Amino acid sequence: MKNILMIGTGGTIASEISPDGLAPQLTPAQLLALVPAISELCNVDCVSLFSVDSTSMTPAHWVKITQCVRENYDKYDGFVISHGTDTMAYTAAALSYMIRGSKKPVILTGAQKPISFDSTDSKVNLLDAFTCASSDDMCGVNIVFNGRVILGTRARKTRSKSYAAFSSINYPFVATVQDGVLMQYIKPECEPYPQFCETLDTSVGLIKMIPGIDFELLEYMTRRKDAVIIEAFGVGGLPSYGDDKFLETVIEAIKRGVTIIMTTQVQNEGSDLAVYNVGHRLKGWRNVLEAYDMTTEAALAKIMCILGSTRDSDEIRRRFYEPVAHDILYRSGE
Ligand code: ASP
C-alpha cells in the first residue's frame, strides 16, 4: 500500500457548530477516523499544520504547507491537504508553482458541509482525495472535489453553497472519481523531482475595473505594490474617460519598475488586449503582461513566485509566459 501524508489546515470539513458560527476544530486524525475505508486504500500519517478558516489564510500559510511537503517529500508517495474551500483555489494555484513539477500527487480537498453533519460531502471528498493520492497515474497539484479532479492552476470556486463548488477554468477536468474509481482523461506533466519555491514577493495587488472607476485607486495601488493585476472588462483594456489618466498611471508605474498584469473579470475564455484600441495601446510595453487564459488566482501566485527571485523585466516576462502545469495555453505573439 502507498504511504500518504495528510496535512490538516482547517476549513468547513473540520468545523463544528459553535455559538458564533462554524469553526474548525477536528484534527486530521479525527477526520480520518470517520472515513474507515481510507485505511483499506493506503497507509496514512497525519500532521495538523494549523486549524483555520481559509478566509484567514495568507501566503505565509502556503509557505508552511510547501515546507511540510518538502521536508516529507522522500518519505511519502503522495499528499492530501484538507483545506477550507473559500481560498482553496488560491492555495492550489500557489502550490502548483511552489511545488512545481511534482511527480507525486499533492491533492487538496475540503467540503461545503462539515463532516459531523448528517448530510455532508466531506466523506466522499476525503475518500476520493486519497484514491487520487494513492494512484500511480496522478501527479502534481490538483483539487479533488465533488468527484472531479481539477488542475491546481485552473481551479476556481464558482459556487458558494452547493457541492459542485469548483470549476476548471479554460481547461478540462483532468479526471473524475466515481464510486472509488479514478478515470483519468489527461495525464499531467511531471518531473523526476519538484522545484520548490518558498520565497514569495507578496507585494501584489488586484484591482477590478468598474464603470466610472477613479484612476487614483489604480495610482494608489501601483505606488504601494511591486505588481498590480488589473481585472479589466471583456478581452481587456483600460478605460479613458475623456483623458488618458489610466494609461498614464500605468506608464508611470512601469517606469518605476512595477509589473502590471492585465486580465479580465470575465471568467471564461481569457483576455486578448490586441483586439480593441483600449487594450492595444498597452501591447508595446515590456512590463505590461497579459494573463490570457490564466486564472487570476494563478496569475497572482505565479507573479509572487517570479518576483520572489528576480527583478529582471525580461526574465519576469519569460517566466510569466512559460507554461507551468498547463496554466497558460494561449499567448498571442509573446
Ligand atoms: N469558510 C470556510 C473556509 O474556507 C468554507 C469552507 O471550507 O467550505 O474555511
Radius of gyration over alpha carbons? 20 Å
Low-confidence residue ranges: none
Q: Mean pLDDT score, rounded?
A: 96
Strand order of the largest sheet: 4-1-5-7-8-9-12-13
The structural class is alpha/beta
Individual helix count: 10
Element-level helix/strand string: EEEHHEHEHEEHEEEEEEEEHEHEHEHH
In total, the number of strands is 18
Structural write-up:
With 334 residues, the protein is of the alpha/beta class. 28% of the residues lie in helices and 25% in strands. It contains ten helices and 18 strands. The chain has helices at residues 28-33, 38-41, 59-72, 88-98, 122-133, 215-224, 245-255, 277-280, 296-307, 313-321, and strands spanning 2-10, 15-16, 23-24, 42-52, 78-82, 99-100, 105-109, 140-145, 148-151, 155-157, 166-168, 175-178, 181-184, 195-196, 204-208, 227-232, 259-264, 288-290. Strands 4-1-5-7-8-9-12-13 form an eight-stranded mixed sheet, with helices on both faces. It has a four-stranded parallel sheet with strand order 15-16-17-18, sandwiched between helices. Helix 5 (122-133) links the parallel strand 7 and strand 8 (140-145). The longest helix is centred in the N-terminal third of the chain and has 14 residues, at 59-72. It starts with a strand and ends in a 13-residue tail after the last helix. The model has no long low-confidence stretch (mean pLDDT 96). The protein binds aspartic acid (ASP).
